[in-house]
Amino acid sequence: MNTPALRDWPLWEVFVRxxxxxxxxxxxxxxxxxxxxxxQMARDVYTRRQEGVSIWVVPSANITxxxxxxxxSLFEPAADKIYRHPTFYEIPDEVGHM
Amino acid sequence: MAAHADYVLHLADNAVILGxxxxxWCGHGPVxxxxxxxxxxxxDLIGQARLLYQHVAALRHDGRTTEDLLAYFRDVPDFxxxxxxxxxxxxxxxPTASGNRDYAVTMARNFLYSALMVLLWDALKxxxxxxxxxxxxxxxxxxxxxxxxxxxxxxxxxxGTDESHARMQAAVDHLMPYTQEFWTSSAMETAAAAAGVxxxxxxxxxxxxxxxxxxxxxxxxxxxxxGGFVPTGKLxxxxxxxxxxxxxxxxxxxxxxxxxx
Lengths: 98, 261
Known about the structure:
The complex is a heterodimer. Chain A has three helices and three strands, in the order αββαβα. Chain A is α+β, with helices and mostly antiparallel strands. Chain A has one domain (4-95): Ubiquitin-like (UB roll) (Roll). Chain A has a three-stranded antiparallel sheet, covered by helices on one side. In chain A, a hairpin with a 7-residue loop joins β1 (11-17) and β2. The longest helix of chain A has 12 residues, at 35-46. By secondary structure, chain B is an all-alpha fold. Chain B has one domain: Up-down Bundle (Ferritin). In chain B, α4 (103-124) runs antiparallel to α5, α4 packs antiparallel against α8 (205-218) and α5 packs antiparallel against α6.
């Protein structure tokens, strides 16, 4: 992150809510000088084909991610605990989206 | 009726020539995000031009005029676009079509033109020509974004580094005299306004001045003194640059007339 371009134009993560979608979904990243510019660029880069009705941008530096090396200890233990999934219940139609 | 069609043709030529100019940045944008933004801008403008050309063909109703004929098989004196829109992306006195692209010039021009067109499209929504009014309503939304995008860059570059400020000031100094053509009268505009089809742009001048002066002040830029050469592109008398734009835009259609994908 030492080159002038990356210092002046940091990375932003873009989240777009689609027409039918309930939540904003991560769709990519881009470089921009500030939040307002990032929003405008996200509009041009990620919503050209009517993908969205709402955009969020978040500085990539503000995202804390789990380390790939921790994958086994974090996620492997859940693999053999099938009883944690509510797959043995039937959801009535009236409930709708869950 | 001829003035009516000519007036719509003037609007169409504005859109197609600026669309073609801005498309010259495709693959050459300063950053990927702006490359896409300019391509979007061009596609908006070319889309506006298509609707307007189709409308001209319908107005002429001579069984011969088509949108392709209007875009690809007319020559420089037939085009009625503002001279401002055919200039290269450069402040150089003798620029080449591809050399010396300066993004400040591109953004300053888009700003000056979009500031006029948001006002003009908004007024044309009340045109007695219902098809033109519908095209205006659609184009207004696109142009509002073009204004927002170019105004943003006018401010960023104007109120940026010494280098970006100097280049944006040079771009404004270079382009501002060409905006005088917005306010001169022409037979087609006068006739179209009298018929309730068109709008007298001189009624928009005060609001345009406020829009422009407000942005220039925020961008710490000086507005150059008014005066000097008044261009005549909308009358068909153009700069030397339009021929090169048309050569690039029309050569394929002329080499392969009526070719289809």
